[in-house]
Design goal:
By secondary structure, the chain is α/β, with parallel strands linked by helices. It is built from 5 helices and 5 strands. It has helices at residues 28-38, 61-69, 89-97, 125-137, 153-166; strands at 48-51, 77-82, 101-105, 143-148, 170-175.
Amino acid sequence: SWLPTTLCNLDCRYCYLADRKNDRRMTPAVARAVAASVRRWLSSRAVEVIWHGGEPLAAGRDHLGLLFDQFADVEVSHSIQTNAVLIDEAWSAWLAERHVRVGVSIDGAECDNEARVDFAGRPAFRRIERGIRRLVADGHPVSVIAVVSDPTPERARRLYQAVAELGARWLGVNIEECE
């Protein structure tokens, strides 16, 4: 897993990334070094490079494309883990053109996404939902990762129903860590 940028457009209350307000970008040289390091694995297994962050789309299509291009002669698949807020028609087309698998971070129904806010404290759910619906409408097989603070049977039912209604094909659950 690799961070194309530390920058994120959201300020989720449970986020552990301290540098999410800063745009510290991975350089092409680092991506090239990663590509070189995975070559030795290709003879025995498939390799998937998962770009997460921060918000990987905050790096922009040009920069993210430049990083992907460092893998041009290495047979890997690319995935991103995004909050989907920036997904629009252009991003969806770019992801399809590059055959990028898409995972979205959303915590289920709107009532379960109170921790997902922007830096002004505004809820992000509707923007995330819009991005997911765009991806699904454009034929992307979307996976979801949800952070769950209250792992109860009712919460599990609500989560599964919300994710199924959004059209996601896979669901991963992270139980929120409390220290």
